[in-house]
Backbone:
């Protein structure tokens, strides 16, 4: 099984899970969570026009503490 | 929903999907994660995972990592909102519209005020006329048309008012606004152009002006009617706006219902309770009897009665004559008891009657009048025609009580009691089977 097929399958599985509204918690990496943002009116500051933005679902990734520490350490190493 | 999927369960799902062993899937996921972390910690600070997304470090000092999902992932997740697109709102125009909408009723109110005071409108229309002199001819034609229409209006003012009343009830305010906008303005327009048309007077226009003048009078009348109708509609609206005391109606109905119920019960009691009348009769009879007893004071009268009774038995057996005759003959023999004998006469002549009730039956009557319950037999014999079974005498039957002398009744004499007892058998005989 090549890596491309693997990643395709992984992506499908993850999308299924997130569509269900579940969270994915990977140890030493982080958690993935689907978050819905409601519709809102935004104003374009340049033109002054108001735009109604439709609701959307975004995937929120919060890195695990270990990963954050690793990133910090990498900066020190540099 | 809201379940937390761990690496283990993710591996299981992946294994199911790709048909590999659970451990293999687990190891592969772990390896890919390690690769991602390695890429992240590189100088680029960016790791792209195909079919999933892109991780990149936004702030290396604080260790902030952002995730940007791949296109197919975000699309599939945002499927429920796929049809929505950002819409530009024309808020300024909406605000303007709102302002204009809010202005409409104000202007109408001004019109209403001006109908009460005609001067301001005339000034307004003066300005209009001066500003648009070219339109005066067309205005004149319009004036003539409107005047005709108004004449028709005056011919049917009542029907108009009626329609106003009927239509103004559900939505009175809007209708009034339309009235003022459509009808009052033209009416005021008619008034104004008169001097202009007179200035431009031609032969043809002169007739029109005269008609216009006559029409102006008419229009004034129409205005007056319209104002009155407006007042009427206003009054009606006021009537409708006033909250009717709806709470009072059920209360009044409640009280009325209680009163009627009481009346009905009174009537029902009056008609369905006849025993009251019978008790009254009984009381009357008893009063009579009481009177008799008071006249015949003390036990001496009773002894006198007994003596007369014995006399009757003694003499009446031989003569078989009526009791009255014997009593009449008695005063001759015994002079000292004359007063008593007359009183007994009175009692005898008076036919004593009594009514049978639940508590006042033949035996009780016998005890009352003769002193012993056994003498009921004689009461039965006296009223044999009326009565059937002596134990089943219906309540309310009036019974004649015979004088004690008629059957030789004496409570103190054991022999008379025996005779009464003997009569029991033949009376009960036909009812015992």
Residues:
């Amino acid at each position: 099984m090549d890596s491309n097929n693997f990643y395709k399958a992984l992506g499908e599985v993850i999308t299924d899970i997130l569509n269900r509204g579940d969270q994915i918690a990977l140890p030493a990496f982080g958690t993935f969570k689907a978050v819905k943002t409601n519709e809102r009116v935004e104003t374009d500051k340049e033109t002054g026009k108001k735009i109604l933005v439709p609701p959307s679902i975004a995937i929120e990734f919060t890195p695990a503490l270990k990963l954050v520490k690793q990133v910090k350490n990498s900066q020190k190493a540099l | 929903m809201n379940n937390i999927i761990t690496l283990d369960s993710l591996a299981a799902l992946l294994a199911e999907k790709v048909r590999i062993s659970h451990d293999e899937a687990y190891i592969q996921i772990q390896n890919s994660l390690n690769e991602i972390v390695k890429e992240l910690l590189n100088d680029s600070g960016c790791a792209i995972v195909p079919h999933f997304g892109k991780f990149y470090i936004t702030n290396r000092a604080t260790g902030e990592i952002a995730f940007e999902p791949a296109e197919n992932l975000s699309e599939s997740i945002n499927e429920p909102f796929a049809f929505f697109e950002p819409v530009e709102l024309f808020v300024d125009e909406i605000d303007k519209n709102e302002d204009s909408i809010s202005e409409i009723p104000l202007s109408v109110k001004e019109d209403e005020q001006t109908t009460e005071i005609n001067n301001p409108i005339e000034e307004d229309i003066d300005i209009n006329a001066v500003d648009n002199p070219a339109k005066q001819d067309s205005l004149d034609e319009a004036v003539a048309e409107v005047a005709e229409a108004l004449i028709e209006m005056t011919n049917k003012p009542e029907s108009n008012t009626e329609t106003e009343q009927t239509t103004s009830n559900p939505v009175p305010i809007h209708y009034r606004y339309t009235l003022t906008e459509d009808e009052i303005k033209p009416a005021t327009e008619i008034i104004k152009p008169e001097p202009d048309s007179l200035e431009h007077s031609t032969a043809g226009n002169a007739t029109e002006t005269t008609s216009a003048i006559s029409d102006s009078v008419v229009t004034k009348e129409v205005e007056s009617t319209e104002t009155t109708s407006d007042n009427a509609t206003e009054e009606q609206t006021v009537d409708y706006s006033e909250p009717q005391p709806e709470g009072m109606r059920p209360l009044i109905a409640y009280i009325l219902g209680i009163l009627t119920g009481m009346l009905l019960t009174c009537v029902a009691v009056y008609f369905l309770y006849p025993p009251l009348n019978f008790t009254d009769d009984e009381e009357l009879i008893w009063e009579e009897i009481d009177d008799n007893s008071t006249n015949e004071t003390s036990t001496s009268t009773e002894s006198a009665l007994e003596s007369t009774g014995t006399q009757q038995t003694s003499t009446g057996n031989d003569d078989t004559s009526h009791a009255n005759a014997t009593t009449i003959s008695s005063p001759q023999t015994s002079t000292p008891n004359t007063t008593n004998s007359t009183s007994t006469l009175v009692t005898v002549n008076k036919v004593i009657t009594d009514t049978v009730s639940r508590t006042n039956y033949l035996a009780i009557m016998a005890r009352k009048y003769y002193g012993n319950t056994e003498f009921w037999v004689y009461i039965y014999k006296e009223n044999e025609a009326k009565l059937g079974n002596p134990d089943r005498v219906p309540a309310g039957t009036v019974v004649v009580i015979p004088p004690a002398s008629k059957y030789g009744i004496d409570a103190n004499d054991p022999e008379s009691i025996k005779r009464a007892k003997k009569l029991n058998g033949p009376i009960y005989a036909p009812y015992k089977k």
Residues 20 and 29 of chain A are 21 Å apart (CA to CA). The domain at 3-77 of chain A is CATH 4.10.520.10 (HU Protein; Chain A). Chain A touches chain B through 57 residues (CB under 8 Å).
